[in-house]
Specification:
Structural class: alpha+beta
Order of helices and strands: EEEHEHEEHEEEE
CATH superfamily: RRM (RNA recognition motif) domain
Organism: Oncorhynchus kisutch
Oligomer: single chain
Number of helices: 3
Protein name: ELAV like RNA binding protein 2
Number of domains: 1
Mean pLDDT: 77
Helix content: 10-25%
Number of strands: 10
Keywords: Repeat, RNA-binding
CATH architecture: 2-Layer Sandwich
GO molecular function: mRNA binding
Pfam families: RRM_1 (PF00076)
Strand order of the largest sheet: 5-6-4-9
CATH topology: Alpha-Beta Plaits
CATH class: Alpha Beta
Length: 122
Amino acid sequence: METQLSNGPTCNNTSNGPSTISNNCSSPVESGSMEDSKTNLIVNYLPQNMTQEELKSLFGSIGEIESCKLVRDKITGQSLGYGFVNYVDPKDAEKAINTLNGLRLQTKTIKVIALVSQRFHV
């Protein structure tokens, strides 16, 4: 039996406001596409007051974004300090890692890494 694991979801930008969280999420496990794992990024250590629009603008300066999601607390709407960005082109995802990883935003230094799928046998 072959199972595929993922380090996290990829979410489409379907938020209806600052306190709404989208349930329209998928992961490379569900899509089964290894190409997705080359374009999906997780961004950690974001400033709490950063908006989804600012996140999209920052990463959109690198290349075309398929989806972007700033993760927020379901009750308070407060940013949890991380998000997901999915690029159309794997080269843009790689460029974003090389360009934006370690960038200082306000008092935080962001960490940008690829969501890499792993396969193993059970």
